[in-house]
Design brief:
By secondary structure, the chain is an alpha/beta fold. The protein has seven helices and seven strands; from the N terminus they run ααβαβαββαβαββα. It has helices spanning 4-17, 30-36, 56-64, 78-87, 126-139, 159-165, 195-199; strands spanning 47-50, 71-75, 92-95, 112-117, 140-150, 167-175, 182-189. It has a seven-stranded mixed sheet with strand order 3-2-1-4-5-7-6. Strand 2, helix 4 and strand 3 form a beta-alpha-beta unit. The radius of gyration is 17 Å and the shape is globular. It starts with a helix and ends with a helix.
Length: 203
Amino acid sequence: MLNKSSETLQFFRAWISEPLRVASVTPSGQALADLIVSEVSPEAGPILELGPGTGVFTRALLALGVAEEDLALIEFGSEFAAKLNADFPRAKTLWMNAARIRDVVLFDGRPAGAVISGLPLLSMSPRTVYSILEGAFMHLRANGAFYQFTYGPRCPVSRPLLDRLGLKATYLGGTFANLPPAAVYRIQRRKHLRVQDAAVGSP
């Protein structure tokens, strides 16, 4: 397990080499980790984590009581993926682009209860963000949620893209304790009104 200083150094080196892939020069803080997993329970597993980096959110999930075996960690950075595999040997760590998650089988086909995303969506093209969300929701159960953090002033997924995928975004909260300050959004499928429900109460 990395100590805080070596973890920060590893993150900084990754940011220097690929600034568009790594969201920040430092790993996410504990306040942000606590916020992004605040609605997750151990019963929500299995859980899919995208872009776990040094494993800050992963450790927050484990602290909640989520079983390590119920975690799938999708990481594009080879150094991060190797370290995640060493630190969390009972989780399933996949070294791959998150835009291709629709092509993999996870948890023996069991749907996930939540997706925790540390991906820098603001630096990605709309097509890439679409592929990530489409693939993630293919692995999510009907009432599952996708949790995304951002350093921006609004949801990092545009309204047209949400509409195209039939999704809605809800502001979950923000924290100034993180450097830089960050916010978390919950993204879920929209609940469409059924025809029989619309007919109730009709004259």
